Amino acid sequence: MGGTSFNLILRVGLIVTLVQGFNTPQRCLSRGRVSHLRSSLAEETSAAAKQPDTPAPLPSPPDMAAFSNGYKTVYEELSCSLSTPTFGELPDDLIGTYYKCGPAMFSAGSLPPPKNSIIQPKAPPVPDGQDMSRMVTHPFEGDGAVLAVTFHGTKTSSEDESGSVVDCAGRATMRYRYVRTNAFQNERKKGKKVYTGMESTRSAALDDAGGNVGNDLIMPFYRHHLLPGLNKMRKNTSNTRAVYFGRKLLTLWAGGLPYKLDSLALSTEGRSQLGGSIKKEESGMSSKAAIDAKANRILFFGIDEEPGKSQLNLYEFNSKFQAIQDNDGLVQVTILGLGLMYDFAVTDNYAVFVQPALKVNGMQYMISKEPGKSISLENESSMIHIVARPGNRNAGKATTFQIPYDGNPESNIEFINSYEEDDGTIVFDAIRYISTNSGVAGSNQWPWASSLGSYQSSTSKRALWRYKVHPSRGFISKDRVSNDQIYFGTINSKQSAQKHRFVYASAGSLGEEVAPPQGITKFDLETMTQTSWFPQSHEFCGEPMYAERQGDDTEDGGYIVSTLFNGQAETSEIVVLRANDIAAGPIARVPVGIALPHGCHGCFAPTDEANWTYEEIERRARLADKMEARGSMWNEVKSDFSSLGLRFDDIEEILGL
């Protein structure tokens, strides 16, 4: 897309001032102007009510038919492709690799095994919707795939296998592959849907305090079957988050082990027990990893779920992805009740969890363990657990406080970041889900969300909130920062576990009204302003990821990288925005080469070791393709950090590559 045609695209830059107060926020938006939004971050001030002279209208309502097209199976992977911007230029100081994970196979078994595989499926792939027995009943049940985009900066050239010089400067190398989980391979061999453990839950009208939170279209609270261990009821799709740390790439899903992938080719090396830290192969891990930027450490957690009490296992690793020496990098805490928690945040000394109140139907839990039948969210206070990290002198000590109930439970909360103030107060920002449509079954049949009404009936209201709690004094406050519908909140990763000023998120185009993630918004929590950019009504951005600008140490001096799905053309791009000028819109748009489903969470690896040349990536990708074609990877490999399963670096000579 050239610069001239791009000028025809609707670009809406919005700056909103967040003004103090607890009433429902009112918003009046104008391009490049300041207007006022009442929030509950502190008491309302009288100075804030001046309206802009010429308010511009809100962005156009979303094109829901276009959005619905973002839930289509990817039938062909992208091995390796060098892409040039169609608008603008990639900055020279944008260097590193962007990863993103999400569901991508909605018609089960639709990527055939290699032709030389002994086992071939009885049924070939079919278009989505042609055979409903193969369709998943919720997008979150789709098999996971990973996108990787390497920005080369000023690297001018490298040689490919033919000896030709490939100019990488100002370009990006794309690849996209499915995670070869055990479940994925099983359905791939059979050419049909095998795992149906969550289908009754997905089709249920959940008449509890959670309403549509349980089966929320974008990120449901009920994420896995409650039968523990390795079984056909609990399908590990590895589709929720991509994490790169210590030169290792993992994909996560709540309820099973992580999978380790090759960082260049995205080929699957197998399930990982994190170097032996996770003792049981059947352990259920969360779909979140939290990074302590100051200490250069990463933390994970898993929960052994039981109705009466659950065990929380908190793991901590150093910069080399080795368990820290203190307490062998593990603390275990017993919490009362069924601990369904998928997210957490860390500070210098603690890990923070929020546990919603659940009612367990003992008979159904014993018989079926289906979430929709066995448990329900209660109209009660949720609990905050403050757990001393493994490296803390009080490692494993846990304190628990009630969050005052305000009519909605804190269920499915999405942490953005947390930190400790000078007096020890823990502050964390989070996206809070507000239950709606209790007792109304969401759309459990493809295509999903083809109308705004359908989307709103199956998707929860969300808003940005700030919480404060003290490890010894207890709960302090919770305040709504903004009532706009937002998703996928992020920060500059250098501020992880430290005080942050800016929050980035994907935003709906209808303000406070429920609408799908579409634009990019930025909250300045110091000046209390909000700045947004929205694309055309048929275009939809995913999670905004902060990308460090080489040589810059400011909190918002880098870039925001996101996927953008064009639902009319059914194409995808990478958009790059300046983090300190979101309202100006993208400075570059780079085609991916295939249409990507909407997806979930990712990360940006700015380090030098994640700045591979196109030739290095292409060589590794061809090797991955050859290995799979020869059937050498057909049986799942169990990966571990002490024995990484298939190691391409060690076998290139064997294959004569």
> How many distinct beta strands?
38
Q: Count the helices. How many?
A: 9
**Span of the ends, CA to CA:** 37 Å
What fraction of the residues are assigned to beta strands by DSSP? Answer: 25-35%
Low-confidence stretches: 1-12, 19-56, 632-637, 642-657
The chain-level mean pLDDT equals 87
Could you explain the architecture of this structure?
The chain is mainly beta and 657 residues long. The protein contains nine helices and 38 strands. The protein has a six-stranded mixed β-sheet with strand order 2-1-31-30-29-28, with no helix packed on it. Strands 4, 32, 33, 34, 35 and 36 form a six-stranded antiparallel β-sheet that branches. Strands 3-9-6-5-37 form a five-stranded antiparallel β-sheet, with helices on one face. A hairpin with a 4-residue loop joins strand 30 and strand 31. It is globular and about 65 Å long.
Structure in a nutshell:
The protein is mainly beta.
Can you give keywords for this protein?
38 strands; disordered C terminus; mainly beta; 657 residues; globular; six-stranded antiparallel beta sheet; six-stranded mixed beta sheet
Give the topology.
Elements: H1 3-6, E1 12-20, E2 34-39, H2 64-68, E3 78-83, E4 87-88, E5 95-105, E6 143-152, E7 157-159, E8 165-167, E9 172-178, H3 182-190, H4 199-202, E10 241-245, E11 248-252, E12 259-261, E13 268-272, E14 285-292, E15 297-304, E16 309-317, E17 330-336, E18 345-346, E19 350-355, E20 358-360, H5 362-367, H6 371-374, E21 375-377, E22 383-388, E23 398-402, E24 414-420, E25 426-434, H7 452-458, E26 461-470, E27 474-482, E28 486-490, E29 502-507, E30 519-524, E31 529-534, E32 539-541, E33 545-547, E34 559-566, E35 571-578, E36 586-591, E37 602-605, H8 614-629, E38 638-639, H9 648-651
Parallel strand pairs: 1-2, 13-38
Antiparallel strand pairs: 1-31, 3-9, 4-36, 5-6, 5-37, 6-9, 7-8, 10-11, 11-12, 12-13, 14-15, 15-16, 16-17, 18-19, 19-22, 20-21, 22-23, 24-25, 25-26, 26-27, 28-29, 29-30, 30-31, 32-34, 33-34, 34-35, 35-36
